[in-house]
């Protein structure tokens, strides 16, 4: 089917969201809570666009809105710009400690108001970390409470038995809200300490014992194969490939 | 419900939890039953629930904190719910909260040390005509003032469950 975005027609397939088509065609729509590994969540609403269908137009989150025949999308209208500015303003007020939010707040030209700022906070509760943890397969963290008290945490805010210290949550966080401290051979994350093991080639600490055990168990790759850091693994692979002769 | 059935130990938890099918969709039902028996959700019971239905503990914890109907702190034998909806608020729900604090030393979300009384605020119980309203366990008290509240506390104190009104 054809999807019209900003006056131009693009190919779209059933099951695509508006954002999927836009990304494929190189049309910029800003996002915060979107990651290609998990698809749209519709939690930050920054990807809001204007959709006209059957003569009526409304604002929708493009990451979750499925494409259909005959709809027309506008990615930048005064209404869209205004709502994005408001979203950035509110998220900045909630997570004023985040460098990214500070930057967006300036870029979007948000106007001053009397809403209080949470200087210490960096989390915008986009849930990407929760999804990453779920995808890794340990689900050590989740959102707790609800409404204005909602936040991300481990059960009872204690060191979670399920956590393997992989730091996927911190890695995926768009606002750098999750503390992960690597000092020497100790990694501290979510109130839990892990021993880091050293790469067998370069000797740099790179992963936790729990993480390697877990990956080994899930992938069936032997432990010994996993004891190299990312860079050394790549070098090792290149070494192996040099041995092959082109046929 | 017999005393033995509500024993707050792993045996008691098992008796309740294993009474439900071990499926994800029964989590809320299990939590309701646990709340009814223990007046809160004990941590060990939540852990057992997660294991039994095959859902990560973090997700069960997330659900337990999401709903106001569930409490992770033990509630009292007598649970006061002060309505703090708009009408009750204007009609003086704060007086009731102050009075309860003066008499029992507990604020919203707290329980007395002897686990006799606990207090929470609710947003609206739909009884605006009789504001300010107070719920004591399941019983509604209309147009409560400081003096009436004192009497109510007296009634429930020392094991009184006010059954004669039912």
Automatic annotation (TrEMBL), chain B:
Record carries keyword Iron: yes
- Cofactor(s) this protein cannot do without: [2Fe-2S] cluster
Q: Binding of [2Fe-2S] cluster: at which residues?
A: 83, 88, 124, 128
Q: Name one GO molecular function term.
A: metal ion binding
List the keywords (alphabetical): 2Fe-2S, Iron, Iron-sulfur, Metal-binding
Q: Does the keyword Transferase feature in the UniProt annotation?
A: no
Q: Which domain of life is it from?
A: Bacteria
Q: Which family does it belong to?
A: Belongs to the complex I 24 kDa subunit family.
What is the protein's given name? NAD(P)H-dependent oxidoreductase subunit E
Taxonomic path: Bacteria, Bacillati, Bacillota, Clostridia, Eubacteriales
């Amino acid at each position: 089917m054809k999807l019209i975005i900003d006056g131009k027609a693009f190919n779209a397939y059933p099951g695509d969201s508006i954002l999927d088509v836009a990304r494929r065609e190189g049309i910029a729509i800003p996002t915060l809570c979107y990651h290609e590994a998990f698809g749209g969540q519709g939690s930050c609403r920054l990807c809001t666009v204007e959709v006209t269908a059957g003569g009526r137009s409304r604002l929708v989150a493009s990451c979750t809105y499925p494409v259909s025949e005959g709809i027309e999308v506008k990615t930048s209208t005064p209404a869209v710009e205004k709502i994005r500015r408001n979203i950035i303003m509110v998220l900045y007020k909630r997570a004023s400690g985040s460098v990214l939010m500070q930057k967006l707040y300036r870029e979007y030209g948000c106007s001053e108001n009397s809403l209080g700022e949470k200087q210490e906070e960096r989390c915008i509760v986009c849930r990407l970390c929760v999804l990453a943890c779920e995808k890794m397969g340990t689900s050590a963290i989740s959102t707790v409470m609800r409404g204005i008290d909602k936040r991300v945490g481990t059960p009872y805010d204690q060191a979670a038995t399920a956590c393997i210290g992989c730091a996927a949550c911190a890695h995926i966080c768009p606002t750098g809200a999750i503390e992960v401290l690597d000092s020497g051979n100790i990694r501290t994350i979510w109130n839990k300490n892990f021993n880091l093991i050293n790469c067998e080639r370069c000797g740099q600490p790179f992963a936790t014992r729990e993480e390697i055990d877990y990956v080994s168990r899930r992938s069936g790759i032997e432990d010994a194969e996993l004891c190299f850091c990312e860079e050394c693994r790549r070098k090792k692979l290149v070494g192996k490939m040099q041995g092959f002769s082109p046929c | 419900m017999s005393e033995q059935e509500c024993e707050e130990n792993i045996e008691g938890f098992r008796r309740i939890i294993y009474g439900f099918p071990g499926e994800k969709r029964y989590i809320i039902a299990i939590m309701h039953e646990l709340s009814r028996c223990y007046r809160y959700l004990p941590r060990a019971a939540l852990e057992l629930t997660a294991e039994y239905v095959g859902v990560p503990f973090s997700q069960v914890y997330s659900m337990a904190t999401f709903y106001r109907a569930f409490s992770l702190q033990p509630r009292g034998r007598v649970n006061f719910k002060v309505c703090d909806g708009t009408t009750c608020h204007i009609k003086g729900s704060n007086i009731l909260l102050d009075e309860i604090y003066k008499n029992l030393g507990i604020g919203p979300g707290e329980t007395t040390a002897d686990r006799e009384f606990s207090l929470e605020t609710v947003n609206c119980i739909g009884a605006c005509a009789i504001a300010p309203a107070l719920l004591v366990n399941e019983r509604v008290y209309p147009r409560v003032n400081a003096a009436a509240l004192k009497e109510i506390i007296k009634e429930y104190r020392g094991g009184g469950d006010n059954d004669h009104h039912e």
